[in-house]
Fold this protein.
Amino acid sequence: MQRLFAIAWLTWKAAFRFRLFLVVAVLLLGAVVGLPLLIKDDGTARGFTQILLTYTLGSITALLGLSTLWLSCGTLARDVEDCQIQMVAVKPIARWQIWLGKWLGIMSLNAALLALSGGSVYALIQWRADRLPQKEQEILRNEVMVARGSARPESYEKEINAETDQQLKESLEKNPGLKADLKEVRQQIRENIKADYQLVPPGWPREWKINVGLTRQSLQGKPLYLRIKFNAVDKSASGTYRGIWRVGVPRQTPLWVSEEMSLAPDTFHEFKIEPCLDDKGVLTVGFGNLNNTTLLFPLEDGVEVLYPGGSFGLNFIRGLGIIFCWMALLAALGLAAASFLSFPVAAFLSLGVLTLALSSSTIANAVSEGTLMGYNEETNKLGHSTMDLIAIPVFRVVLRVINLAKNFSPIDSLSTGRSISWTDLGLAFAQIVLLLGGLLAAFGIIAFTRRELATAQGNQ
Amino acid sequence: MSAGLRKVLLVLLATALLVGVSFCQRSLNRDRDRLDLTRVEHLENAPPALAFTTLALGGFRGLISNALWMRATDLQDDDKFFEMVQLADWITKLEPHFVHVWLVQAWNMAYNISVKFKDFPDRWRWVKAGLELLRDDGLRFNPNETLIYRELAWFFQHKIGENLDDANMYYKAQWAKEMTTVFGPGTPNLDELIHPQTADQTNRANLLVQKYKMDPQFMKEVDEKYGPLEWRLPEAHAIYWGALGLKRAAENPTKVTPDDLITLRRIIYQSMQLDFHRGRLFKDPYADRFEFGPNLDIIPKVSESYLQSAKDDPKNADHILKAHRNFLRTAIYFLYEHNRLAESAYWYKYLCEQYPDRPLLDGRGNSIPRNLTLAEYVLSQIGVDVNETSHDKVTSAIEGMLRNAYYSLVMNHVDQYEGYKALARRTWEVYQSKMPKESLARVGLSPLEDIDREVLHRFLDPQEGVPWEQRAMLRTKLGLGPEPAVPATTNTPTARAESK
């Protein structure tokens, strides 16, 4: 370990010698202090805090990510090119220790910078929150500066699938010679059955049962939030639909009934409700459709209950933890590239990989359409190319790898007051640092170990 | 020549050229504009950051703008709106002369995003954000673009003025509240804002000019040309921005199409019609809310604006004249209802002369002007059939009119009170006159005074009548003296019963 720390210490010294630490720290603090002065918010304290969290943490991630990539490429490649590595390599230290020591040095630098900038963001938000009127503070602490868990109604997947199979079987028995695409027929039957679980006809009510499980004891007296979304069959002149919500069961639990609400379709609405849970921790939510058109609440995200599940401070730390995992991956990427390439090429390669990861939505689009050629709106058909045979399977693998790191959204969760659990953080560490970072580290260490350092001095 | 001297001379030459070009720049910009040499105009009134960005990024501005637009669309799809004001600001600032960018961003905030919120204050914030984007920034960088004036006027007329949004009354109340801080309660005195004398007047004039970007001098011109307008209502602002658009169009005739002018004029006459219908604002002190009444003083100008629009837009002249006739029919009734009988008769005569062969009543082809008197027309308009022989229906209609009369008096609308009273009497007289004398004893109406007394009694009834403040007000105005004390009962405190 002493050798690892010695290399890490050398990396720190280099970072200070080149004033990198100072410059990045100033940039990060500048972003934290300067952004609130520049950004335009939607006029609410909640909106301001959300945009502040998003933009400051986004800027910190971008600045730190780029500096990590640059430093990790530079610290190894420049040492090799300037022959300084030869002074280290002749010492009683293994190559893997040099590589890991550099990674450790970069990560400890990142930890310090992230703690400094993250702490500043946290302090800034708390400071601003404390200066707000009591009512605004309450909204902030209930909706943004909180770690909210979520619960959804029980899934009806089993029932829907069983009923679909039953109806399909009956159809096939009635029409033995049916030559339709069975997959398509099944899908249509399934959608019809699913609709019964989602639709609320005009003037009719619907109920959902949501079990909050073991957390019910801790929710006594605490505000819950109902997050709902629906689609409408017809358009309304006002663009909104009227409805009334009820929470609880008459004569069994306390009751909460909303005023008549004017709600837009195809959008999420969030509002405060009372915790009218029954003894088993089940919340009964009812909706009355006051319109002359049918409304549809999707099974996947139509109704969801958000409840306070922890403190904002710990959630913030877990969020920073995921950002730190990303930095670990970028450091490993930069060092792996610098293990066998010169500094400019390593930097170019690393930035290329980063760009590829950031543009994964294009790859995901190609994978979901099954072609590189896209969708032709004039012919209403998907294009096709022989390249698809190779590109799409490759894209699928690439996408899966990228998603291992990208499927976490700590900034989004923090700005919407959603909980980042320890499990999420553990998963991020396992997938991003251990798996992806580990693979890159293994590759980098092998490449660096096999590299002939004395031939890398180029034309100097 | 030494190297040092040469450098100094070169620096001096560069400075001289820079000074020289600054003199040419203005005329070059004018020539570019006049000869239509470039699609990208020089920026006016741009803050340094924007001027730098637009020059430094050059053609890449479009790419960045596209990327931001895509982010805005993605966020909106995910119902995340807190960044939208910032993104709209960046997008429009990157393409400050692309008018449709301003229009789409503002529309998106005022129409699409606002209704995504269930709480009315949230909706109002987004409607205002859309308005402010056009008014504060869009017009700042594009002061001669009639499309922006049209859109701004449309937001006032349609989004705030119409009743399509469930929150429209909230919008109107909020706007009225904001305007009250500028104009004070009651009719605004524009002269005191044009030439402020006191600190308060100066503050309010600054607020009007700096925050609401309105020119009190031009407001006065608009008020004289199209008004009198109630400036606390959105219609007046729709007319203002439409009129300002027309003014700018007149100053830049080469940049305007005939359709642009027609649209602006249409917004003005439609807003004037709205202003006629409910262009009078008063506060109901009992319910603590704003109420609307018709603006009858604007009738001649609304009529004139219809005729002018029909003249300007021959393609749609038939539709406009039809709307004009409908407007006149309503105006006559409103004037009669407010006891402005001479004006009502004037406009009735005018209607009969302008449209002598068109029926006055819907669904009754024989109701052409020569077959109907003014009183018969008005009674028919309020739903009392002049040939109605049902004793109960006519009694009920008269009671309704009397009740409206007393309510108008409570609200201090004396003209309206007298108008309803006169209407009730006229209805009573028409019915009685149509009854054969031998039937009067059987199906004749009770004396009007008796019906009136009964209605007033019910209106003032402590148990079933209007709240005590309104009863007290009416008693005072009618000189009826204080309300007799309610006999004490065993267990119902008087105060509690009163406060119901």
Observations:
- The radius of gyration of chain B is 30 Å.
- Chain B is about 70% helix and 0% strand.
